[in-house]
Amino acid sequence: SNLGRALEAVAEAADRRARLVVLPECCLSGYDLEWFRSGAPGGGEALAGSSLAALADVSRHRGIAVVVNDLERAGGAMYSTSVVIDRGAELTRHRKTHLTRAEEDAGLAAGHTLTTPVEIPGLGLAVGTVICFEHGFPEIALRLALDGAGLFAMSSAIRRGYEHLRDLRIRARAQDNGCYAVAANAVGHGYCGTSCVADPHGDVIVVASADQPEVIVADIDPRLVEAARGAE
To answer: Which residues are catalytic?
Structure first.
């Protein structure tokens, strides 16, 4: 069901002439700490699996880039991992480096390296991936910006009651670094939704529903990144 919804969302975004789609954290397996704690038996698949292959296929046929985050099994450990796919090809992957205490207690493992921003032809800005709790650490966004990122692709699964932190941090990371922040968050079942895009001034230019799944689309302008960073 989650895969079907993700494929529909990517196709809808392509119909609306999007060049890049960002999906929420654990958008395929679901974000379930009790399930993680039990070893996530009976479900989930190592990235890349058939679900990632299906997203790569729609990416290739629709000429669109996709940032998908899901549970990754590797070496006996489980990670929250974001993969950037463009036109069917995997460009990079990033394992979440900063975990909450609850995630650590549930058995998720932390990645040890930041991803390198990737160029997506036709987008005009290099993309750096940020996963949920990582947006609370300014150093992560700064490192990505110094490495050339002009857009942060943020996948998260943030529950109701934490909206104030999420909204503040997304806008701050965008404004701190003169970057766009494209933040996709889970919605329904206790999650706060409100996926959004913030511009390099830290202003939210489009926001999704807090209650229902929704595809939102925004234009980005690389010149705003240059201006925010004082480029001549």
So the answer is: 25, 96, 132
